[in-house]
Amino acid sequence: MLWLEGVSAGYGGVTVLRDLSFAARAGEVICVMGRNGVGKTTLMKCIMGLVPATAGVVALDGEAMQALPAHEVPRRGIAYVPQGRRLFGPLTVAENLAVGLMARNKGEAVRERVLDLFPRLRERLTQVSSTLSGGEQQMLAIARALCLEPKVLLLDEPTEGLQPSMIAMIRDVVVGLRATGVATVLVEQRVSAVLGMADRVAFMDQGRVAEVLDCAGLQADAPQFRRYVGV
Asked: What Rg do the C-alpha atoms of the chain give, in angstroms?
């Protein structure tokens, strides 16, 4: 379980996260929603140690993580797919996957399981990643993260700019991760995508998690979407 309690963080003298509390359970998909600027990406970066917490606790399975250097966080089992993917463009698909495997010393068996989730990537192992389509690059970014065999997977706007068939494929993979026990934290602005994937929605406002709702019975016209997201 990923657990944050009383976390504050920001950039220089600007505080973005303010006394934030949040939890992601094993085997669930929890979506983080909110208007631009409320701190969704900063939350992801704080979990990864890329933006240091100035107060509070970030813990995974009871182990405090907030004081760890950023390169140690993936080794504990948290994988991050940032907005924009951040692939190694000159490297091939296979080489990008190898980078993911190295983070926690995983081997060929893990790579094969990941490629089973993304059969299109298996067909493109020798292709330079910068020449892939946008949807294929997003698949590769997620596949590389899954090569860590993470306990927690952080996805920042994974469906942004993708065609419907690619969105459906990524949705199916995310939903399928429940059965493996992975906790998936998803930043997403599209209400239809959220309702099709998430178990719970955490609405952020002014640097805090203002409200958390179960998706069961939640409708697209729920007042929380208008209040916190503006749709």
From this structure: 17
Assign 152 a pLDDT band (cuts: 50, 70, 90): very high
Residue 138: count of CB within 10 angstroms of its CB: 26
Name the more confident of 151 and 169: 151
Confidence tier at 168 by pLDDT (50, 70, 90) = confident
Contact between 7 and 20 under an 8 Å Cβ cutoff? The reply is: yes
b vs e for 48-65, b when ≥16 Cβ sit within 10 Å of the residue's Cβ? Answer: bbebebeebebbbeeeeb
What count of other Cβ atoms lies within 10 Å of the Cβ of residue 36?
Answer: 8
Which amino acid makes up residue 166?
M
Which whole number is the average pLDDT over 86-113?
92
- Please give the full DSSP string across 49-106, using - where no structure is assigned: TSS-EEEEEEEETTEE-TTS-GGGHHHHTEEEE-TT----TTSBHHHHHHHHHHHTT-
**pTM (two decimals):** 0.92
CATH of domain 2-77+151-229: 3.40.50.300
8 Å CB contact between 183 and 28: yes
The residue extents of the domains of the chain are 2-77+151-229, 86-149
Instruction: Please tell me the distance from the alpha carbon of residue 46 to that of residue 39, in angstroms, as a whole number.
Output: 10
Structure tokens given for 176: 């399928």
For residue 150, what pLDDT is reported?
96
pLDDT on residue 88: 81
Distance between CA atoms of residues 41 and 124, nearest Å: 30
Place of tokens 């990537």: 121
